[in-house]
Structure formats: structure tokens, C-alpha cells
């Protein structure tokens, strides 16, 4: 009995710690995904700088009442209307009202708040990109160390084998036993077979990895005819994405704005002087005013004679397309952003922070399907803002009522059907 | 020797090929003819269609009205048109205007300069600190409240002063919706006692005098 107890204790402890650890990581990841999908389009991810919404670091300490904070996150308009003083005070932060998140659950809010707190206090590394690259470096270093160790071990094993065979030969000679000459290792069939198998596995891994990577353009950031910074326009100056890419709301394509849309503002804004310094991919500094002058060349606009400008004489700027889907894939912007309420940033990354736009997502089929599996559909169609179309899914409504399902995701309403995207 | 060359070639292909394509190259495609569209794309030349004798000038036939759009605006972009526009009325019936959608259009297309509170102080101007140096019109000014919906529509359609034309971003119906939204906000703020402040569609409540005068006036003859 006595030796049994510590083992049992240890086992329980192990199980407990595994349970606790896994629970912590799950909630942290949930908090991050929730924050990225729901909050990050307006709140800065470092939790320390203000953006469309205020910096969120220490938000729980600022709010006098936790329950009210939850109410604010769910429906800030109702809380402001109720006259709660702190809500009224922060509603003055910006004329842009915060979105309503009426469907968010208490555990989800807690996960987000925990993530905010973790990032703010530095438990989770500050910036996402820095953290990722650090992780990458760490695993790279580990790989190098393991590689060196296994090389040394292999060398030692080889030397020992050599020594062993020499000793054997010596002892054989001493005892006068005559053995045939040993086969050198490069003609030894076992070694050759082993080598071939290893080469096949390692080579196969890299070849298949390369094949999968074909036409994946993640990170593609080509040089554009004009250095156009999304960070300056959509980030610092808060121009809505739909101001220029308005077609994304109404049609399949997001559309590239015509020159006259640029000129709506650049008729007046003729120099770049108030924003931060701009750098291209190679780290060369960009003269913003010279880039605006390039626009005037396309537009046929003379800053000295602004009234003489004829928009119909403008030439299109041939922007280089970054996000490209093959012809055999159907993708519709309006279906996602208008019907599905997906934020632009969900697929295009932190576009308001990019000077030079790069493709943030893989845009592979696995990536699409994964999102369709995870994304929940707003089935609350009885609400006037909801989508009446979902009323036809009687079975799902019954299942939700009876508790068989807690939510409906895109996969349940045909998001995984081949012919939804390939036809 | 031949064997060695083959092995070296294979090794080179395995290591070098997948790493091709830096940040400024899109990388290799598995089946390029499926990836890069063969259809006529945005910047594609239409010369060969014209050579084949087909009518194609990238523009709809003159007089085309898009499905769901309002009837086109007849007045010309000149001083006569501008003067006539003062008596032109919004062709949309007030009940048919979805104010929520109109507000969305305003916030995207107009609020960047004219401000989400219609006070002429959007993020681009920002009290003169923003990059946009020309002060946008404050819709809450008495002068702007007196401006008729027709004149506003004329300015949004053709541009006025530093403001460009928004006809490429908003169709005729959407422009009228935005004008109706601005007018309802102006009326709502002026008549503090009127219930219009709550109900943004100020259709049933009496509008302030200038707007009403514009609405009563006969529609300009074509």
C-alpha cells in the first residue's frame, strides 16, 4: 500500500496539471481568436494605443462594475441610453459608435478580457508578428542544436563501429581465425538500402511540401506603380475600406477605385507632410509628395490649374493584383462582408497597419474550409437586423430550441458543398 | 559520373525550386492556365474585340437605367443646371427610403470630411490638423440648412468646389438617399421640440421652413 500512494498522487497531479494547462491554453487561444475577429478591427492589438476604439489595456480596472462592462460590450447603445455615467463618458471617445455584439456569451467576454489583460501585462508577447518571429527563431535554433547533436552522435557511433571492427580483426588475427575481408560500407547492401529509404523519406517530405506550396502566395508584396500606403489612408486617416472598395458591399469583386476617387481628396491634398515617414520593402525612404505627383500624371491634373482638370482624360493606374483566386473558384465579396458580416481584416490581415500590402492569408482551399467549419451563423433572424433567409432552416431552429445544437456554423448550411465554390 | 550529376541535379531541384519567388514574385503555379484568368480582366485590352467589329466601348448604352436605380438626373453640369436644381425634388417617396442604409452610405462616403455629426469636421479635416486643408461644409450651418435638396444633389452628382463628383461611387438612388439623410438630420436638430429628433425619417413631421419651401416649389421643367 505504501509505495502505491505516491504513484497515485503523482498520477493525479500529472493529470490535474495537464488538465489545467490545456484549459488555460484553450481559453487563451479562444480569447485571441475572438479578439481578432470581433475587436481588432477597431481596437489596437497592443492594448496600449488608441485606434478607432480606445486602448483596451486595463479596461477591467477602469470600469467600476464588471457586470456593466459586459452589458457595454453586448449592447453599448442600450447602456448609453440608460444613462450609466461611465458609459456616457466613454461614448465621447469617438463619434464612431462601437458595434453591437448581442450574441456574445459571458465565457467569451471573459476569454477576451483575459487575453486583453495578458497582452497588456506582457504575459502574452506584445506584438503578434514579433512573437511569431521569435517563436520561429526559437524552433530554428532548436532544430540546429538537435541536428548538431545527432551528427556528433552519428560520428561517435561510426568511430566506435570502426574501432570495434578493427579490434575484432586484431583479435581474430591473434587467435589465428581466417575471416574474409569485410565489405566497405559504401558497398554494403544494408547501408545502401537504409540510405535509399532515408533519402526517399526526407526528399519526399520536401518535394510534397514544395508541391503544396505551389501557387500559395502568402506574403506576396509586389511593387505597385504608385507607393500607396493603406496605413496612411485607412489607418491614420480612417477612410472606410468601402469608400474606395465600395463594390465589395454590392458585388462579387471588391473593385479597384478609379482615378477620380483618388482625386476626390488629392485635388486638395497635394503634399504628404503630416504623416509618418514611409519606407518601401527594401527600406528605402519614400517621398510621399512625389508619389502624389505620380497620381497627377495619371489623372492629367495640373496643381497650378485645378479648375481646368478634365476627369474624363484620366488614364487608369495599372495596380498589380495581389489576392488572386484561380478561375475555378467562385468567391463573392458581398456574400461574405454584407451577408456574413465578415470584417475585411479577417482575410486581408491588418490592412490598416500595412504601408506595402502583402497577402496575409494563404487563400488555399483548406483555409477557406477551415473558416467555414468554425464560423457561426447569426441565426437570430426574428431580430430586424437578422437575415430572414435562415427562417427556412426549420430543423436547425428546432434543434437549437431542444438543445441538440448550440449554434449553427457555415458548414451546416452548405458551406462545405463542393459546388458552392466550384461550378 | 553521370549518376553523380543526376543526384546533384535532383538535390538542386529539391532545395532550390520550392524557395523560388521572393516577396515581389507571386511564385509558381501548378496549372497556370487555371490560375490566371483567360477572361477579359480590368486592364485587359479590348482592341481585338473592336477589330472583330463588335460594339464595345466599356460603357452602357446612353440612357440605360440600372435595375433598382432611380430615374437619371436630367439637369446639365453648368450654371443653368445649377440654378434649376434648386427647385428639383427628391423623386423617392420618403417612406421608401431606408434611413439605416442611408446613414451607412453617409458615414462611408461623406463623414470622412463632413463629419459623422454633419458638423463639417471629419477625420480628414480634423479642425485644420488633418491632411485635408479645405474646410468642408458644416451641414448644421443655417446656410446649408437653407440649401434645397435639389442643389445638394446637383453638387454631389457633379462636384462642387474642392469636392469631387460622387456619381461613380453612389448611384442616383443612393445619392438621393444620402441627401434625404442629411435633410432629416438637419431638420431633426433644428426643430428641437419636434419628435423628428427621434424618428430620423422626418416625413410625417413638419419640416423647417426652408426645406418645406423647396419641397412646395414646382418641379423644374425639363
What does this structure look like?
The complex is a heterodimer of chains A (423) and B (222). Chain A has 423 residues and is an all-alpha fold. Chain A has four domains: 4-126, Cytochrome Bc1 Complex, Chain D, domain 2 (Orthogonal Bundle), CATH 1.10.760.10; 134-212, no CATH class; 230-353, no CATH class; 373-421, no CATH class. Chain A is built from 18 helices and two strands. A two-stranded antiparallel ribbon of chain A has the order 1-2. In chain A, helix 12 (259-266) crosses helix 13 (288-299). Chain A is extended. Chain A starts with a helix and ends with a helix. With 222 residues, chain B is mainly alpha-helical. Chain B has a domain at 79-216: Cytochrome Bc1 Complex, Chain D, domain 2. In chain B, 40% of the residues lie in helices and 0% in strands. Chain B has helices spanning 2-16, 32-35, 47-51, 79-85, 99-109, 111-114, 142-146, 149-158, 172-190, 209-216. In chain B, helix 5 packs across helix 9. The longest helix of chain B has 19 residues, at 172-190. The interface between A and B is large, with 48 and 45 residues.
Question: What is the topological layout?
Answer:
The complex is a heterodimer of chains A (423) and B (222).
Chain A: H1 4-39, H2 59-62, H3 66-74, H4 76-81, H5 85-90, H6 106-121, H7 128-175, H8 189-212, H9 230-236, H10 241-244, H11 247-250, H12 259-266, E1 278-279, E2 285-286, H13 288-299, H14 333-339, H15 344-348, H16 365-374, H17 394-402, H18 418-421
Antiparallel strand pairs in A: 1-2
Chain B: H1 2-16, H2 32-35, H3 47-51, H4 79-85, H5 99-109, H6 111-114, H7 142-146, H8 149-158, H9 172-190, H10 209-216
Amino acid at each position: 500500500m505504501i509505495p502505491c500512494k505516491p504513484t497515485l498522487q503523482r498520477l493525479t497531479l500529472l493529470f490535474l496539471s495537464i488538465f489545467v494547462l490545456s484549459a488555460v491554453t484553450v481559453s487563451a487561444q479562444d480569447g485571441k481568436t475572438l479578439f481578432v475577429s470581433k475587436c481588432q478591427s477597431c481596437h489596437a492589438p497592443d492594448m496600449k494605443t488608441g485606434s478607432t476604439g480606445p486602448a483596451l489595456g486595463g479596461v477591467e480596472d477602469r470600469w467600476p462594475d464588471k457586470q456593466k462592462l459586459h452589458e457595454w460590450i453586448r449592447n453599448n447603445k442600450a447602456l448609453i441610453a440608460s444613462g450609466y455615467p461611465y458609459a456616457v463618458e466613454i461614448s465621447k471617445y469617438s463619434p464612431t459608435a462601437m458595434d453591437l455584439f448581442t450574441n456574445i456569451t459571458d465565457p467569451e467576454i471573459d476569454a477576451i478580457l483575459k487575453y486583453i489583460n495578458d497582452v497588456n501585462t506582457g504575459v502574452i508577447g506584445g506584438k503578434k508578428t514579433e512573437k511569431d518571429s521569435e517563436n520561429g527563431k526559437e524552433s530554428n535554433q532548436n532544430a540546429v542544436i538537435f541536428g548538431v547533436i545527432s551528427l556528433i552522435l552519428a560520428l561517435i557511433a561510426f568511430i566506435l563501429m570502426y574501432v570495434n571492427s578493427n579490434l575484432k580483426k586484431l583479435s581474430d588475427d591473434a587467435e589465428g581465425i581466417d575471416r574474409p575481408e569485410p565489405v566497405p560500407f559504401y558497398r554494403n547492401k544494408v547501408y545502401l538500402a537504409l540510405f535509399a529509404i532515408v533519402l526517399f523519406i526526407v526528399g519526399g517530405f520536401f518535394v510534397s511540401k514544395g508541391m503544396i506550396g505551389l501557387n500559395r502566395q502568402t506574403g506576396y508584396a509586389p511593387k505597385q506603380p504608385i507607393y500607396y500606403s493603406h496605413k496612411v489612408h485607412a489607418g491614420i486617416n480612417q477612410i472606410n475600406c468601402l469608400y474606395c472598395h465600395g463594390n465589395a458591399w454590392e458585388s462579387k469583386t471588391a473593385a479597384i477605385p478609379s482615378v477620380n476617387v483618388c482625386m476626390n481628396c488629392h485635388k486638395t491634398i497635394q503634399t504628404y507632410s503630416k504623416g509618418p515617414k514611409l519606407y518601401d520593402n527594401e527600406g528605402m525612404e519614400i517621398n510621399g509628395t512625389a508619389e502624389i505627383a505620380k497620381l497627377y500624371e495619371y489623372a492629367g491634373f495640373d496643381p497650378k490649374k485645378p479648375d481646368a482638370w478634365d476627369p474624363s482624360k484620366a488614364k487608369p493606374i495599372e495596380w498589380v493584383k495581389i489576392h488572386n483566386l484561380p478561375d475555378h473558384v467562385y468567391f463573392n465579396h458581398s456574400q461574405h462582408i454584407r451577408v456574413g458580416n465578415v470584417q475585411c481584416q479577417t482575410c486581408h490581415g491588418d490592412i490598416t497597419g500595412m504601408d506595402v500590402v502583402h497577402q496575409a492569408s494563404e487563400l488555399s482551399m483548406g483555409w477557406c474550409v477551415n473558416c467555414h467549419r468554425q464560423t457561426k451563423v447569426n441565426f437570430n433572424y426574428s431580430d430586424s437586423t437578422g437575415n430572414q433567409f435562415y427562417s427556412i432552416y426549420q430543423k436547425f431552429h428546432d434543434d437549437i430550441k431542444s438543445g441538440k445544437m448550440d449554434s449553427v456554423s457555415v458548414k451546416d448550411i452548405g458551406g462545405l458543398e463542393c459546388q458552392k465554390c466550384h461550378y | 559520373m553521370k549518376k553523380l550529376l543526376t543526384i546533384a541535379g535532383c538535390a538542386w531541384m529539391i532545395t532550390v525550386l520550392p524557395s523560388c519567388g521572393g516577396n515581389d514574385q507571386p511564385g509558381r503555379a501548378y496549372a497556370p492556365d487555371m490560375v490566371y484568368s483567360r477572361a477579359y480582366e480590368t486592364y485587359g485590352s479590348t482592341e481585338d474585340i473592336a477589330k472583330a467589329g463588335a460594339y464595345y466601348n466599356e460603357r452602357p448604352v446612353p440612357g440605360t437605367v440600372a435595375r433598382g436605380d432611380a430615374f437619371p438626373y436630367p439637369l446639365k453640369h453648368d450654371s443653368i443646371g445649377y440654378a434649376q436644381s434648386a427647385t428639383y425634388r427628391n423623386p423617392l417617396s420618403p417612406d421608401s427610403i431606408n434611413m439605416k442604409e442611408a446613414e451607412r452610405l453617409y458615414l462611408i462616403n461623406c463623414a470622412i470630411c463632413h463629419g459623422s455629426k454633419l458638423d463639417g469636421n471629419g477625420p480628414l479635416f480634423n479642425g485644420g490638423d488633418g491632411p485635408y486643408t479645405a474646410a468642408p461644409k458644416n451641414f448644421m450651418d443655417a446656410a446649408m440648412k437653407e440649401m434645397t435638396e435639389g442643389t445638394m444633389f446637383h453638387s454631389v452628382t457633379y462636384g462642387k468646389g474642392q469636392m469631387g463628383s460622387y456619381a461613380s461611387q453612389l448611384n442616383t438612388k443612393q445619392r438621393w438617399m444620402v441627401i434625404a439623410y442629411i435633410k432629416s438630420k438637419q431638420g431633426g436638430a433644428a426643430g428641437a421640440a419636434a419628435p423628428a429628433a427621434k424618428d430620423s425619417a422626418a416625413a410625417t413631421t413638419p419640416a423647417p421652413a426652408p426645406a418645406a419651401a423647396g419641397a412646395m416649389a414646382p418641379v423644374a421643367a425639363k
